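Appendix B. Raw example, untouched.
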Amino acid sequence: MTDAAEPEASSADYKESGFADEPGAQEDLSTKVHIVAPSTLPEGYVFDAEVGAPDAKKTISVEVPAGGVVEGQVFLVPLPDDFAVGEPRVNIPTGKWKDDWYEILNAGPCHSSLWCALCFTQVAMAQVMQRLRFNWLGEYAPDAATKSTFKVILTLVICYTVFTLALEMVEASNNYYSIPTWVPVLRFFGGVTFTIYSIYALMKLRENVRAKYSIPEERCKGMEDLCCSMWCSCCVVSQMARHTGEYESYKGKFCSETGLEANVPSIV
């Protein structure tokens, strides 16, 4: 979802559109798309940009928001109402969450998204990132940096699992008093590092999903994404999967990079 030239995105200069609780935002709750400024442009300047999946890009007219943009800056613009009219698409609600974080059974007690989120939270998170074409940190990035998001996170999960099991085997092969000092140290730092990554990536993913679909914070204003990611990670992942999956029309799939079947339309 970038302009045609795909200049390098600058995460430091990220410019969000309004959320549903901000002045004037209720007038525009359409889906937003990420655009990378091709150059430094003044407020109100109009240019063409390409959005969509790499193999199905379409051109839209983009108006530079208030304050202008600098080259490489990422900003969000509303998707035109006439975009891809008549073509199949995943209908994703805007302005509020489809359902609440605790309504984990809404897609069904045996649904793949529920059990993947409960048993393999980071893998389910990776599926949502892949379907929205975000990178492994839950952020917007050019197409080349997002095509392998699921594989990157799956590799991290496997490596951490192997790392943990290897240390447990070392511990099991020694009695309590002869366990090498470096074993608990490595376990501690490995666990802390993986936990920090998981919380940060989920927080950024939720933040960007809210920005894309104009969903305001409801609790813990200013800290909601962090709090939810720390204390309710599996429920939060399941909520985002339900919100972006339209499981009423499209079947979920446990073993797929997006958590959806291959014939499901790509999400813009």
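End of appendix B.
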